[in-house]
Each structure stands twice: as structure tokens, then as C-alpha cells.
Amino acid sequence: MNSSKDISKIKKEYQKFKNSKKLLDLTRGRPSSEQLDLSDNLETVIKGDFIQDKVDTRNYGLLEGLPSARKLAGWVLNSDPANIFVNGTSSLTLLGHYLHSMIFHGDGQVAWKDLDKVTFLCPVPGYDRHFAMLEKLGIKMISVPLVGDGPDLDSIENLLETDETIKGMICVPKHSNPTGETFSKEKIEALASINRDGFKIIFDNAYAVHDFNNSKKLPDIEKIFIEKNSHDSLIMLGSTSKISLAGSGLAFISLSPNNMENFVNYFSKFSLGSDKLNQARHTRIFNSKKALTEHMQKLAKIIKPKFDLVFEKLNELPDGLAKWTKPSGGYFVSFDSLKGNASKIHKLCEEAGLKLTPLGATFPYGKDLENKNIRIAPTQVELEELSEAMDLFCICVLLAEES
Ligand SMILES: Cc1ncc(COP(=O)(O)O)c(C=O)c1O
């Protein structure tokens, strides 16, 4: 698509898309079938051998996961396996359990349900499902801007000074959803230095090892928090949803010894063990850090060309209309309409058959006050469809400017 085309030509191209009645979808950050194919060996790796880590994986027990699964999760989160709890297939579910444990029981101090109000800081644009979960649980959210290497520290400081109900923060520290940014050492150190009783920073590290080449390195979060004497403030989450299979992988949470004791005390009332069979499947395939890295490199080979295509198409837009992030890994590109045209672009796209993440979803309560942000999720679709979808998207950006 050439942005120098006159508007009547662009309108014609838009109409052509509309008439084709083709449905395109850049909604969710899901892996493509080609990515999932790389984990097909999970189906056959057990071969009747159910003993892993000297444990019969078919039985109850090991709520916190097999030692080898905790080691694997430790590679992903860069955390001591002793601090890791592997259970279930979804980090979101573990997050939900963790929040429930804090609401009903707290971490040995006050349970959040006994407080008048609990507020969380939410770096934005952020992950819609975090915001939906916090809203559902009655936790108030306050947006804090992300500034390219993590959240704006001055805003956090001001808010903490004036609002005692702030009990935590939730963020994605690497290849953030959707901005793609990776937090700097300065930010992590400042976050680890927040001195507030019972304050919890939830790092949902869903894209911890999802690098293209030359990705920015995430500082050693656990080490920094331990050095600053604030391990109890640190909650880290992750999963293999975007390493192996989405919805059938392994989910994990990393907690300080105190937090682990409280969390296990809570969680053990709801389950008699973990799915060790699935854990064995994973630890046999990802049996070394090297095996994990090689697998992620294969995934990057599939994903990176899709990001390159998105950038190629967006680069054709005239200057001054929009800006977008250029992540070096992860699953998303965050697009900002500089003219506050997000709702117009969104409507035009939807009317011509291109589905996008719901408008405002990247902000708490679905409210993008500047009407600018749109999350682009290019991984699931094939290159050809992505190319069409981005052509249509760019046409809509241009048309929104005109209307
Ligand atoms: C930041 C973030 N956290 C969690 C998830 C979902 O992870 P899981 O499948 O482990 O629940 C996603 C999926 O898009 C995500 O982007």
C-alpha cells in the first residue's frame, strides 16, 4: 500500500476489502499452528515411562511440582527453583489463586477483604486480562504510564505518597504486553526499593524467554529484590503457554519463602497435587537451558518475519499520524494514533472485516482517555493474511484522518 495515493483511491481500496467480505483477525496473542507443531513431540515422549524424578507421575502429590519442572520454570523466570511452585496450565489461573489468597488470608498480616479498599498500580498500556481480573475481584486500578523501559517512577512515588490503599502493582517486565518494552535495571531497583508494608509487585513474566535476536536483557529481578531486602514484595509468574502449547503447558509462580508458605497453606485446600505427567512431558523435552533456548530460536524464526511485515506496512504511513513500538521479542506491537483516532480506526477496521482487540482494552476499565492505543497481535495469522490485514489497517488509519 502506498500512502501517497490520493484519498479516492484509498476509499476504493477500502470498499474492495469491504466487498470481499473476508474476515481477518489480529485480536489475540495466540501462537500459530506452525509454532504449536514444534511441540508435537510432547504427545509421544512419555512412551509408558511414568517415572520422573523418581516419582510415579500418575499419582497424587507434589503440589509444588516435580523438581525438574521447578528447575525448568527457574530457567524461564531466572529464579531459584526452591522459590518456584509449578501447578496447572495457566499463569492467569495461578494469578487468580494468588490474589484470592491475599483477599481471603493475606500474607500473614491483614487479609485484603478486611480493608476498606485495595488499589493496584497498573502500568499502561497493559494486558487487558490483568485489568479484567482485578476489576472482577473489586481491586481498584490506577494507571501509571510506561515510558519505554518500565513505569514512570515519579508517578508511582507521588501516588504512593498520597494513597494508602495502594497495595500492589501488576506489570509485564519483558517484551511487555502490548508495548514490548523490557524494564531497565534502574526501574527494577527502584521498584525493589519501595518501602511499604505488605506491598506486592506482580511481575507477569509471560515473555521471559521470547526473544528475537539481540533482545534487551531483563535484569535479574529476584537477585535485585533479595539484595534490597524486599523479596516478600516480589511475585513472579510465567508459563509455557507460548513456549510449548497454549492451554496445555505448565504454569508457575515464584515466591519468597514467607509468601510461599502462605500461598501453599491456601492452595493446598483446593488440590491434592499437580499434573506431574504433563510436567514430565515438558522436562524431558526441555531438559536443559540449551534445549529451551534452541526451541525459542525456532519459534523466533517463525514469529520475527511477522513483526517485520507489520513494521514494513506501518512504515508506509505518512509521518505524524501514528507511532508504534518495535519490540525485540514477545507477541505484540502497540500502535498509538497521534491524532486520537483509535475509535475511528477501530470502527473502520471492524466494518471491513478486520477484528482487533477491543478498543480501550489496554487500559483499566477499558478507558483509553486519549483514544489512541490499538494492540496489534500478529502471531497467529499466516503471513499472507497478516499482509492483507495490515494493508487494511493502514487504509483505515488514513481514512480515519480524513473522516
Ligand atoms: C502478559 C500475559 N500474561 C499471561 C498470559 C496468559 O498466560 P497463561 O496462558 O499462562 O494463562 C498472556 C497471554 O497473552 C499474557 O500476554
List descriptors.
three-stranded antiparallel beta sheet, binds pyridoxal-5'-phosphate, Aspartate Aminotransferase, domain 2, Aspartate Aminotransferase, domain 1, 403 residues, alpha/beta
Question: Care to describe what's here?
Answer:
The protein is of the alpha/beta class. It has 2 domains: 135 residues, Aspartate Aminotransferase, domain 1, CATH 3.90.1150.10; 239 residues, 3-Layer(aba) Sandwich (Aspartate Aminotransferase, domain 2). Helices cover 38% and strands 14% of the residues. The chain has 13 helices and 14 strands. Helix 11 packs parallel to helix 13. The longest helix is centred in the last third of the chain and has 26 residues. The protein starts with 6 loop residues before the first helix and ends with a helix. Pyridoxal-5'-phosphate binds next to helix 4.
Structure summarized in a few sentences:
By secondary structure, this protein is an alpha/beta fold.
Topology as a string of helices (H) and strands (E) = HEHEEHEHEHEHEHEHEEHHHEEHEEH
Bound compounds, please? pyridoxal-5'-phosphate
Domain tally: 2
Mean pLDDT equals 96
Count of alpha/pi helices: 13
If strands are numbered along the chain, what order do they take across the biggest sheet? 4-10-9-8-7-5-6
Q: Spell out the CATH superfamily of the largest domain.
A: Type I PLP-dependent aspartate aminotransferase-like (Major domain)
Structural class by sheet pairing and helices: alpha/beta
In angstroms, what is the radius of gyration?
Answer: 22 Å
Helix content: 25-40%
Strands, count: 14
CATH T-level fold name of the largest domain? Aspartate Aminotransferase, domain 2
Major beta sheet summary:
7 strands, mixed
- The backbone outline, from C-alpha atoms, is globular
CATH architecture of the largest domain: 3-Layer(aba) Sandwich
Please indicate the percent range of residues in DSSP E strands (runs of 2 or more): 5-15%
> Kindly, what is the distance between the CA atoms of the first and last residues, rounded to a whole number of angstroms?
19 Å
Assigned CATH class of the largest domain = Alpha Beta
- Spans of 5+ residues with little confidence (pLDDT < 50)? none
